[in-house]
Amino acid sequence: MQQSEKIISFDRRKLTSVPLSVHVKETVEHYFIQLDGHHTSGLHAMVISEVEKPLIEAALAYCGHNQTKASKLLGLSRSTLRKKIDLYGLS
Fold this sequence. Notes:
Blueprint (H helix, E strand, L loop, with lengths): L19 H16 L7 H20 L4 H8 L3 H10 L4
């Protein structure tokens, strides 16, 4: 099973309020450690695409797959959301 395929289980009663930015920073720092001195480029685009797809998936699930509600939740136009759904193969 690849790392991206792992199922994460958690107890909602034990969640603490940690800002998303903290998780992103820790994950990017971990990525840098894994690079082990190797050079890379396009990090911004990679991070945005890695975050955007699950964000859209979660918003759609939260809104019962209603694209109008999800677009409002995300602050996107419905047409932009539809383009991103197609881009990430979420249709």
